[in-house]
UniProtKB/TrEMBL annotation, chains A, B:
Keywords: Calcium, Glycosidase, Hydrolase, Signal
PANTHER family the UniProt entry points to: PEPTIDE N-GLYCANASE PNGASE -RELATED (PTHR12143), SECRETED PROTEIN (PTHR12143:SF39)
Gene3D superfamilies to which the protein is assigned, alphabetical: 2.70.98.10, alpha-1,2-mannosidase, alpha-1,2-mannosidases domains, GH92 mannosidase domain
Entry cofactors: Ca(2+)
Keyword Acetylation annotated: no
InterPro entries: 6-hairpin_glycosidase_sf, GH-type_carb-bd, GH92_a_mannosidase_put, GH92_N, Glyco_hydro_92, PNGase
Originating species: Chitinophaga hostae
Protein name: GH92 family glycosyl hydrolase
SUPFAM superfamilies for the chain: Six-hairpin glycosidases (SSF48208)
Length: 761, 761
């Protein structure tokens, strides 16, 4: 009883008490080294602004060829780097391809330098050396000393406004550089057009229009200084820009209308020693007028500390949705850092008045919902959106509304594949919007027109010219010689089709059900019973002759080899297991996967995971195997699931820069961590079941949006006690290896009793 | 009495009766040969769409250098040409520099060709031969036979929608080409970005964004076909365009989302013999959504003939504002063609809902007025806007509101100099918005905040970094060695400043009056009494030593030589005459101007007028001398004004392709014709007086917007009887050489009695 009261006290009093506690466990620096592709800068949950340092801005292309080194800079920051180029306002978190890096700002003193210089010789440009010893990265706050010029840089943000605070030495030569050329995954012609207006001596507006991963992207800004500049100017590397009668003016200095493709502007100030120059820069997908609206509504004043406090309070509120009790600081840091990374993307993509830019480049208004962008759906349909259905159901429904708006605005009549900033970028495979929509509908989190949503799914899945679908529809498989990565595509289409079938069944639309439940069996068409692997077929119907089941490249798969990908039938593990020789043979396959020695040569060409992202031949740093450790639940050996998931948690996640074994992929890697730590995982989104694993905390309290509380109470767990001995749901023994979505949403307690030995049979 | 009744009958019955009669006198082909720079295509009065053929689309640059031949194609059409490349939707009328030519459409049959081909070998591309014998150019209607493919092309337009009607032969290979690369004054990088969406099998939307005369211009369209296409495709010359994951698709055929810098799209049809394919293409400065709104509101149906009738009815209404009686068909053709050309620019620049793009690239709404663009103010302040104050006062006030909006949106806080499509292009000199505003205020046509308007004028005139103004303000002249064309600038600034002073005086703002009336005397600072000419001074205060008063280039003037430009003190002819040695000497100067033989060498480099645009050394093809023939009224020899203006009317204006002796300049040349034909001219806009000349018609009836009628009744005029014997206003002898604006607006009759001999003294 006493314990209950304490628990009740905790859960209601959490907001005040936990504020300090929870924030401290978030380490935004996690994953900034090597392959995590996270960024350390300031953002609020699902915020439009991600204000973060760029440690290099190397070009996407060198001499017309792709520059593989650029890959490191997907998020603009690499922990090993010694210099900072500046602070820009948009970043992806954890992606494996990139864009953005808009509106780079850098403070300098002394002689004005308008080129960034090189990492080896930061003094040759405006960049500066820095040291991690002066660096602080917290949710909604980032601080670093720019050593070359002795400037303290601090950043915070609201949803749509980045707030900079630069503490200068005393000088008559303080500069703020606004580099419109800089960008992530940049190249000479990436800027289609840029435009700056100096509206008065504190207000600057403009836009940057790019052609990159997003083909036609335009982002607007409005930026104010806390004090008037003394003078300003630009270096306009007017490549291919028509000068016309603008030549009448000396546009290099104090000329308020700048436009072109290669502009770097600067603003000069005098500063007293220790004087702070503050900058607020608001974004808008709509217009500079929209950016100004955002700026004035979100941060009307100049209180940096208050904005930081507000940002951290937002984080505290979101992080408190799951309160964990655990002995280890490291586990808390892992957990709340994962929560942090899970709550960054998708990002808000509308102005404070609800206006946003659509795929048709027209301005639309989001009526009654928040419009989001940055949908890395091949990654996030697996665990991130299911996690949202549990602890962010309102946002998840809004994300689906945003996806349906995308569909309505798409001239191709397609739901998003990988979408960002009013663009489809067509990255990766499948049509996993369908999974996200089905998961929400099947779990009852669908405050939108479900029949229209189903129509959007069906139209998308029937789009014959999309990525091998014509073959898939006509023949049930995709010839590898017609369309590469064919097996991955068939397997994922089959799963997505199952999702559509589930929704159709629920809505009583039997024609659609029949069509898509049939398609969902297409995975069988690429199974080669001779080798025991999924295997690419050719146009003539034969299996591709040369075939290396360990090789990731050119074998019919993408971001995975046949060993891993062959296990991808999340909607029907039982049938898959039967097809692959029954439970015993399948278990042996799984065991080998986790224990075999993968020759180095198979790792050599893998670009998006670190060596640590692999256990045996099990690849966790990429997504296709994220459900695999749970498959032992279907082979009668759940203790192996329990053992494996604990191993993966331990091996793959650490707090600290190198703490992620692969791209965080907009939160998918983190969402896996959260579910698995809680002891259950959505092996098949679109079904309402969560497969049980081995909870890695002592207790977790989920504050649900419906006002209920779901507690995972774990008795006797430890690094050794990873095996589940028994499970109770609300005190009643649970005689199944899963819980349902309703079990969670109804509130209650799931109690795990743990021990050091597997409980077999 | 009987005559009075007939006249009353005519003026009220004119709309019905004159409809047929007036339209027939308009010859849009006038000025399409050589230097007129007019276009023959379809437009409605002040319409957003100017749908007209391009007879060539030669590049603005060749091998990185300006291509002087492009100058001929300012309006896209040259009468001598033998081929038509296609029909685009935006054209300037009569300008001396260019841009536009948006969304070129061309119908073809047979083998698909996506390059325009050459004029010498039209069969090498999609262009076609044509002949003037099949060409019909009327207000709001254009027709021509495209001979190569046996297609009859017909064009008409509403304000914002171009309507094409193509009559095809029977074929399974009919094509409509939409060339997004094509443009007037085009070059490789002029397209910053273009974007097309095939929304369904009849609807296409998109935009074209360019960097040219307008630095940052974007124009949207929505286009519908009268029947569905069979298939479509694109040639995307993807120069510098990032392809990314769009490579998944075959984008060349039936791919509905096109973007890049070098796109030519095509749409294929089957046609029965004589089948018409119709296209409606709506423009918008705001968005494709705006274009669709415009399309649906302005032309919901498909009745080409009705749209043509509606367009011609709009013309009839405008043309009827001045009803002339004259014996000669040629005079009527001259007059109504001039009226037509005067009523094309400025053009409507807002959607049907009042939204338009501002100079800040934000979307604004014109509340309670029509927003206009294309302000060729150095030309049009002289006679076109004064003409509007008489017969288009409402539109003129709206044009000024548009100019004030431009000012409010200008980061430089400048009224327009030469503005088009949400851009300032800074062409030519002065700040003649000020004159247009002053003229309206002084004539009582100012339904806007006059004090704010004065502030805008003052801020503009104090803009020190604009085109030599800092010198002008500080020293009263501009050193030619610091800023070229210095004398022209000083003279025009001085006049503009006088305009500001008049408004300030009227509004009782004496500080401003004092400042600007003083500045208005600056013309004296560039008068060289030794030579008797205005003459450039250098930074050291001395006159430039080498000086050729006949030469137009590099002598301190622009589009005029010292002989012509020295007469430019419109606000104080009396003082100017005194300064230049008194009436006798001044009269001798004027006489010489009109009668001297100008050596050919002085004409060789003049690009924007024809040899016919010169009488002696008097240049009518450019604007600075447009008031000069009227100056005899100040020397006591008004009969010479009467003689000269009749000579100019005869020599410089003819119906027919070569009917204009220089660029029509957005209607300024035509407005000069209209005023002068009526017998009076605004020598000094901003003053409310019109200087009397020699009316060249028998009678003119001006239908004023205030409901009154002003009649110019001319007794006994003929080609020989050009001399005014006496003048009566409402039957009372007029003992002055001018009438006032009030004289006109009060209604009444101005009666000229003409004779064959000068009436001296």
């Amino acid at each position: 009883m006493r314990r209950f009261l304490l628990s009740a006290f905790l859960s209601s009093a959490v907001p005040a008490m936990a504020q300090e506690n929870i924030i401290q466990y978030v380490k935004p620096i996690t994953g900034t080294q090597r392959m995590g592709h996270t960024y350390p800068g300031a953002t609020v949950p699902f915020g439009m602004v991600q204000l973060s340092p760029e440690t290099d801005t190397i070009p996407y292309e060198m001499n017309g060829k792709y520059n593989p080194d650029v890959y490191k800079y997907c998020a603009g920051y690499q922990y090993e780097d010694k210099t900072i180029v500046g602070f820009s306002h948009t970043h992806f978190s954890g992606t494996g391809h990139s864009d953005l890096g808009d509106f780079l700002i850098m403070p300098t003193v002394g002689r004005l330098q308008l080129n960034p210089g090189t990492a080896d010789h930061p003094e040759s440009g405006y960049r500066s050396s820095f040291s991690h010893s002066t660096e602080v990265a917290e949710p909604a706050y980032y601080k670093v000393k720019l050593e070359d010029d002795n400037i303290l840089a601090e950043l915070t943000a609201s949803n749509r406004v980045g707030f900079h605070q630069y503490t200068f030495p005393g000088t008559g030569q303080a500069h703020i550089i606004l580099d419109m050329m800089s960008g992530i995954y940049n190249y000479d012609n990436k800027n289609v057009w840029t435009f700056i207006r100096v509206e008065n001596d504190t207000l600057i507006t403009g836009f940057r229009q790019t052609n990159g991963w997003a083909r036609t992207r335009i982002e607007y800004f409005a930026m104010v200084f806390s004090k008037p500049f003394v003078q300003y100017g630009q270096q306009n590397n007017a490549k291919d820009v028509y000068k016309g009668f603008w030549r009448k003016f000396d546009q290099s200095k104090n000329f308020p209308e700048m436009a072109g493709r290669q502009i770097r502007a600067y603003f000069d100030f005098n500063t007293a020693p220790g004087e702070k120059i503050k900058i607020k820069l608001a974004l808008s997908p709509v217009s500079t007028e929209g950016a100004l609206k955002n700026l004035r509504e979100e941060i009307p004043g100049w209180d940096f500390e208050q904005v930081k406090r507000d940002g951290q309070a937002l984080w505290t509120k979101e992080l408190n949705k799951i309160h964990i009790e655990s002995g280890s600081k490291e586990e808390k840091e892992n957990f709340y850092t994962a929560m942090y990374h899970a709550f960054i993307n998708p990002t808000t993509y509308m102005d404070v008045d609800g206006q946003y830019r659509g795929l048709d480049m027209n301005i639309h208004t989001a009526n009654g919902y928040t419009n989001y962008t940055t949908f890395s759906l091949w990654d996030t349909y697996r665990a991130l959106h299911p996690l949202f259905n549990v602890i962010q159901p309102k946002r998840n429904a809004d994300m689906i509304r945003s996806m349906l708006s995308h569909y309505e605005q798409s001239a191709q009549h397609m739901l998003p594949i990988w979408a960002h900033y009013a663009n489809e970028n067509w990255c990766m495979i499948g049509y996993h919007s369908v999974s996200v929509i089905a998961d929400a509908i099947m779990k009852g989190n669908a405050p939108f027109d479900v029949n229209k949503a189903l129509d959007a799914c069906v139209t998308t899945a029937r789009h014959r010219s999309y990525d091998g679908l014509e073959y898939y529809i006509d023949r049930g498989y995709i010839p590898e010689d017609k369309n590469g990565s064919s097996v991955s595509k068939v397997l994922e289409y089959a799963y997505d089709d199952w999702c559509i079938a589930q929704v159709a069944k629920k809505l009583g639309r039997s024609d659609i059900y029949e069509e898509f439940i049939k398609r969902s069996g297409n995975y069988k068409n690429v199974y080669d019973s001779n080798t025991g692997f999924m295997r690419p077929k050719l146009n003539d119907g034969s299996f591709k002759a040369s075939f290396d089941a360990l090789q990731t490249h050119d074998q019919g798969f993408i971001e995975g080899n046949a060993w891993n990908y062959s296990l991808y039938v999340p909607h029907n593990p039982d049938e898959m297991i039967t097809m692959m020789g029954g439970k015993k043979q399948f278990t042996a396959h799984l065991d080998s996967l986790f224990t075999m020695e993968l020759p180095d040569k198979y790792f050599a060409e893998t670009e998006d995971i670190t060596r640590d992202g692999i256990i045996g031949n099990y690849v966790h740093g990429n997504e296709p195997s994220h459900h695999v450790a749970y498959l032992y639940n279907w082979t009668g050996q759940p203790w192996k699931t329990q053992e494996r998931v604990r191993m993966i948690l331990k091996k793959m996640y650490h707090p600290g820069p190198d703490g992620l074994g692969g791209n965080d992929d907009c939160g998918q890697m983190s969402a896996w961590y959260i579910f698995t730590t809680l002891g259950f995982y959505p092996v098949c989104p679109g079904a309402d079941q969560y497969s049980l694993g081995s909870p890695a905390i002592d207790k977790a309290t989920l504050q649900l949006e419906n006002g209920k509380t779901f507690v995972v109470d774990v008795k006797n767990q430890s690094d050794k006690n990873v095996y589940v001995q028994k499970v109770q749901l609300n005190g009643v023994p649970l005689n199944r290896l899963y819980i349902t979505h309703a079990d969670i949403m109804n509130g209650g307690t799931l109690t795990f009793y743990m021990g050091a030995k597997p409980r077999k049979g």
